[in-house]
Every structure is written in C-alpha cells, then in structure tokens.
C-alpha cells in the first residue's frame, strides 16, 4: 500500500512535522530521505529493507556504492545523495566545533570521530588539536594504514 493511502497521522513526513524527527524510526527517517519506494514496496518498506540488509544506519552509511546499488530501487543517484547528506552532517559538526562549542566530554569526542571516521575501510591515525577550552582548532589524518593496522 502506498504511503499516500495511509491515514495522515501515520505518514512519516506528517509525523515528523507534527512531532519532530525523534518520533520516527530509522526506517521512517530513511523513507523521507528516499521520497519514493519501488514497485511493490513503499518508501518505508524500502527503508526497512536497507536497514536490515546493512545492519543499521551505520552499516548503510559505510556501504560501498556497489553494495548500495545492488538493492533494487537504489542506484548511483541515491548513493550520491546519501553521501552528500553525510558530508553535510560532518561539515555542520565541524562548524559547530570551530564556533567554540568544544568537546565537553569523551562522548562528544567519540561522536565527532565516529562521524568523520566511521565509513573508512582502513585504519587511520587521526589527531585533534584543541585549545585550552577544549575547542577544536584543527583535525588531521596523519597516517593511513590497512584494514587492521596503521604505522605511526
């Protein structure tokens, strides 16, 4: 059944507008991003399939173009859109850090590094330069390694 046939208060876009993005499941958020499904599947069904196939959003974000495009209804255009959204999120977080928000906890550092490094298919030695108030001055990949190790 097409999403347009669903009751209005159950449609992902309308729920997001009424209750915020946090009220949606990963598959529903992905459905809003995808906009349309494919033959026999709504965008929510397709979102569920992608999440199941890649083991969650992190797996989806780390998927190669070939693996992503192997899913019926997905192709290079959607892959490019997904990569663009991820890069915008990275840049937004980087702007936030440069504006002086700073790393207030180890979890903030983890989240920053996860956003920048999660999709890499190799090990890296990454350095963060911080000022006295733990605000980011610069971030740089110093060394690149293999799948399981890097030399420093």
Report on this structure:
The protein has 152 residues and is mainly alpha-helical. The protein has a domain at 1-74. The radius of gyration is 18 Å and the shape is flat. The protein has helices at 12-19, 26-34, 43-54, 57-62, 65-69, 76-98, 106-117; strands at residues 124-130, 136-144. Helices cover 49% and strands 11% of the residues.
Helix tally? 7
Helix coverage percent? 40-55%
Write out the strand line-up for the largest beta sheet, numbering strands in chain order: 1-2
State the low-pLDDT regions, or none.
none
Topology:
Layout: H1 12-19, H2 26-34, H3 43-54, H4 57-62, H5 65-69, H6 76-98, H7 106-117, E1 124-130, E2 136-144
Antiparallel strand pairs: 1-2
Short description:
The chain contains seven helices and two strands, in the order αααααααββ. With 152 residues, it is mainly α. A two-stranded antiparallel sheet has the order 1-2.
Characteristic key phrases:
152 residues; two-stranded antiparallel ribbon; mainly alpha; flat; 2 strands
